[in-house]
Amino acid sequence: MEYIRVTKENLEKEHICCAITNNKDVQVSSKKAWLSDRFDEELVFLKSAERGKCFIEYIPAEYAWVPIEAEGYMYIDCLWVSGSLKGHGYSTELLSACIEDSKEKGKKGLCILSAAKKRPFLSDPKFLTYKGFKVADEADNGVRLMYLDFDETSSNDSDNEETHLPHFKECAKHPHIDEQGYVLYYINQCPFNAKYVPILEETAKSNGIAFKAVKLGSREAAQNAPTPITNYALFHDGEYVTNEQMNDKKFLKLVNS
Description:
Strand order of the largest sheet: 1-2-3-5-6-8-7
Largest sheet: 7 strands, mixed
Number of strands: 13
Shape: globular
Structural class: alpha+beta
C-alpha cells in the first residue's frame, strides 16, 4: 500500500479518509482546522493513497488532547482501517511506520486508549496485545491506557514501571461530574461531532431533555477533563455513559431505556 503524509501544505487538497467523502462537509472542515493547528506540535497524519478508512494519527504525548501523563511517549489519537481495506495487514504497516518514526524522534514508546473488550471508536485490545502493547493504567469506566515500550529492559524494571509508565491524570481515573441531566464532553478531533453534537442539542431541546454540550476548546481543557476519553464522552446524572457518537434515534433510544 502507498501512504501519504498529510501536512499543512497538502491538507486542503487531500481527503482525510474518514467516513465522509465530501471535502466541503462541515465535518471535514472542522477536522482539517483541528489538524492544521496540531501540525506545529508534530502531529503526524498518515493515510492510504487509496480512498478509504485507512490511517493513523499520532502526536507527542505532551501535546495530546487527553488527560494523561506520558513523558517521552508518542500518543496515538487514532488507528483506523475498515471497509474493503480491512484484512490486508495495513494496520500493521501503519503501526510499524509510527514505531519507526517515533524511534527516530527518540521516543520511549507508544501509548493509546483501549478497553478490556472492543468498544466503538477505541482501538481493538486483541490487536494491540498481539503487537506487544500492555495495560499501563485503567479508569473506573473500563477505559485503558495501553503502551508499547521500545526498551524491554526498562519495562521489566519495577521501579521504573511505577514511576515512568504512562498513566491517567487523577481527574480522569474516576469519571464523574456533579451536574444532573445529560452532559457531553467533546473536541473537534473527531469530525463526526461537527454534525452530530448540534443534532443532539436540538433533539434534547425539542423533547424536553436536560442536555448540555461542553466543547473542550483547548489542549489544557482536554488534559484536565473528567474523562479519559475526550473525543466524545457522555454523562448522565454525573455518571459516565458512553463514548459512542449518537444520532437523534440512538440518543432517544438511550434516554427511553
